[in-house]
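Q: Hi! First time doing this. I have a protein sequence and I read that you can turn it into a structure. Is that right? Here it is:
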Amino acid sequence: MKYLVVSTNTKDVSPFIAAEAQRIAELRAAGTITAIWLKSDFSGAVLILECADEAEATAALNTLPIVINDATAFALTEIVDPDSVHAGSA
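A: Yes, that's right. Below is the predicted 3D structure, encoded as structure tokens:
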């Protein structure tokens, strides 16, 4: 399943940037994070995760240093490819 994650920083994240980048690289290498963008004002990020379920996605996010240090909040939404939705099922 794919998940859209939108994070909003709640405090200064600069002390955690190096560790955050390392952990993101690990999650990308594992195929958990498939895409990531920073908000243009650097107030957070937008990610796409590929996980078995919402619990797995949340568990992965909870390993990020800025989450561990309560420096961001995130909204997690399951997303689907429009081509996978059959007419009348939405």
